[in-house]
């Protein structure tokens, strides 16, 4: 396969060749974070789905491994999860521990309308730390007579009830199933009617507990539900979250979950889920999403490979206005992969502009506190700039809006819905907007106000669009801190 590397990210995960969508089977085991992914190894558009595979020990650099799961007599391998079966509940491991993948087999309903899909859950296991996989001879382990959309199992061990729990996307709801051994599943409950966004089919759910502001006496459960692309809605595919209580069978949403809340307000973060089995002494909930949007995922202008994952992120909950609220921040490991380039404190805005004028950068992180005090016009940064290209990250204090404008970010001719300005309402009370911005060859990820709002957006700038500037404040306004870190070294 001939690839064009022009837009290949420096520090984001991409398949070596061909198509990728959702992250699958995220599991930590014996020092490695596994990342499997929806993969079509014969083409650069969506097709017969396999699980591609990679591992990382530092959440920043990845080792590609051979394809883990390929289609078989039960169909394609759709999205799903993986767990460590520590106590050999499956009997696959002769009393030891091992990895089990729980995924959706997708085929056609025999004897029915040939267009009618059938989706059933199946198992595969690995006795060699994920290097080779054996499909369970009893597959599939869970089907349904009437649901056509019945997919994307995310499984976890629920210690309080000593059982496995599966959350599964079931059309416009999620359903819970429980099991003692991952093979026999019993229906527990269904959630989603009359709550949340139904602007598309529900996909790729996740459910995990987090202590609000780190308080072990105040644990809430966080549910992620991705919703598929429906042409009626401008945003395309995106991921919502709920907070609430979970007793091993039923999810009871918080009051705050009556409002629709998104995990990311950019256009390009979909189908993300969290790693299973991160050691308790670490205690983090680590996440990665697919950095694309079904609206145009098959048309993005890369050659020989297509799509990247977001950077790894740490998820926490904090209380805001009485509601448990999701915070996403870059995984702290990414700080080991960066090299400081610029570090300024209390610098005048005009002076900062002059300092940035000569810089040429393509993959980096910016950490800044922007002065927005009296400014009722937008202030912000422009990244990946040249005479005719720029990606604008701005904050409009009057409108209380954080936005990314990729109207002139580079190539956008591949889909009419790509170019544009997208925003999120974000209040600021102290006159300084805190931003961490990750820029790579074909993406920007903006973490605002310590992770309270996140925007992830693809961009396709010319390789020579390497300028960086700030705009909008008075020349003598003071920028309390401004740092740039280069990430990676490949030139
Ligand atoms: C989400 C999704 C999943 C499905 C997979 C197929 O992006 O549609 O629901 O399992 O992609 O590749």
Automatic annotation (TrEMBL):
Keywords, comma-separated and alphabetical: Glycosidase, Hydrolase
Cited PROSITE patterns: GLYCOSYL_HYDROL_F32
The EC number(s) this enzyme carries: 3.2.1.80
Enzyme class: hydrolase
An annotated GO cellular component: cytoplasm
GO molecular function, one term: fructan beta-fructosidase activity
Residue ranges occupied by any Glycosyl hydrolase family 32 N-terminal domain in the UniProt entry: 12-320
SUPFAM superfamilies: Arabinanase/levansucrase/invertase (SSF75005), Concanavalin A-like lectins/glucanases (SSF49899)
InterPro entries: ConA-like_dom_sf, Glyco_hydro_32, Glyco_hydro_32_AS, Glyco_hydro_32_C, Glyco_hydro_32_N, Glyco_hydro_beta-prop_sf
Glycosyl hydrolase family 32 C-terminal domain ranges (all copies): 355-485
GO process terms (BP): sucrose catabolic process
Domain of life: Bacteria
PANTHER family: EXOINULINASE INUD (AFU_ORTHOLOGUE AFUA_5G00480)
Family affiliation: Belongs to the glycosyl hydrolase 32 family.
Name the UniProt record assigns to this protein: Fructan beta-fructosidase
Gene source species: Paenibacillus phyllosphaerae
